[in-house]
Amino acid sequence: MAILITGASAGFGEALCRLFVKEGYHVIGAARRKERLSNLQQELGEKFYPLQMDVSNQQSIDNAIDSLPEKWQQIELLINNAGLALGLEPAHQANFDDWQCMIQTNIIGLTYLTHKILPQMVKRKNGHIINIGSIAGTYPYPGGNVYGASKAYVKQFSRNLRADLPGTQVRVTNIEPGLCGGTEFSNVRFKGDDKKAMQVYDKVEYVTAEDIANIALWIFKQPKHVNINSIEVMPVAQSYSALAVYRE
Ligand code: NDP
Ligand code: 8X3
After folding, report:
1. Structure confidence by residue, pLDDT tens digits, 56-109
2. pLDDT, tens only, 122-165
3. d(Cα 182, Cα 14) in Å, to the nearest integer?
4. What residue owns the CA closest to ligand 2's atom 5?
5. CA of 177 to the centre of ligand 2 (A)
6. Whose CA is nearest to atom 39 of ligand 1?
7. 3-state secondary structure the chain
8. What angle do CA 209, 174, 162 make, to 5 degrees?
9. What is the pTM of this model?
10. If you measure from the C-alpha of residue 105 to the centroid of ligand 1, how many angstroms do you get, rounded to a whole number?
């Protein structure tokens, strides 16, 4: 049995791979950047299988999953972590290609991979899907437009999977992190503008990728009859804000 983690070449995914391998699991780490996966394989050894896969491309998902050696084909845990935010402009100034990329990756890619892996879990009556949503799927913020909407999809898709799966022993969880640093998330969002990206984490003790990995492991290690439906995680330094009122 293996664990399939998408977005394994950086951030949460990399930390998840390290932790699950350390805990003794066989882990398939998937992402587009092959070299980074090879480096991770060198570090983690034979319990790690690097899988080049672009989740925004259905053919790439088919090719990658269908290419898995027999010993790596049974997936007991799928962590749908690959995802991205692009831009922080208001909707009327946003780039449509960015919107399309987020929808293709965060929604369609996650959905297609789930559709591909779920039947084997149901057949075996054993499996767990952990989706990485976001607090942006619950709380709107300026510039969050399609990113937040894509994570709201992940939240509701997770719940609706639960509605379909009673009696199958397959568990589904949505992890909804807030401000997490030490990953490439903001560099990707701001398209390589490191200064802008660094400002997001300035003077904040943020949640780390290792924190998220520990939470995922805890969720997975609950007894088989326990399903954590969702879990919202913020740094202590992050909190709620009043609704905005525009005054003339
Ligand atoms: P990173 O940018 O550090 O990592 C993203 C990972 O996703 C990379 O490994 C990247 O690999 C992979 N990825 C992106 N697009 C694709 C694609 N088309 N196909 C395959 N893999 C892809 O981000 P984080 O680790 O911070 O974020 C991970 C997840 O957590 C995302 O879904 C994000 O939305 C979510 N999240 C992040 C938060 C944060 O504050 N950091 C907070 C809440 C949620 P590669 O480029 O090699 O393909
Ligand atoms: C990432 C957290 O608040 O930048 O999902 O959208 S946020």
Report:
1. 999 999 999 999 999 999 999 999 999 999 999 999 999 999 999 999 999 999
2. 999 999 999 999 999 999 999 999 999 999 999 999 999 999 99
3. 11
4. 134
5. 7
6. 180
7. CEEEEECCCCHHHHHHHHHHHHCCCCEEEEECCHHHHHHHHHHHHHHEEEEECCCCCHHHHHHHHHCCCHHHCCEEEEEECCCCCCCCCCHHHCCHHHHHHHHHHHHHHHHHHHHHHHHHHHHHCCEEEEEECCHHHCCCCCCCHHHHHHHHHHHHHHHHHHHHCCCCCEEEEEEEECCECCCCHHHHHCCCCHHHHHHHCCCCCCECHHHHHHHHHHHHCCCCCCCCCEEEECCCCCCCCCCCCCCC
8. 155
9. 0.99
10. 10
Phi and psi based region of residue 140 (left: phi greater than 0; alpha: psi -120 to 50; beta: remaining): beta
Backbone angles phi, psi at 189, to 5 degrees: -60, -40
Hey, what domains does the chain have and what are their CATH numbers?
2-233 (3.40.50.720)
Which residue is it, tokens 């039947």?
119
Whose tokens are 């402009």? That residue is 89
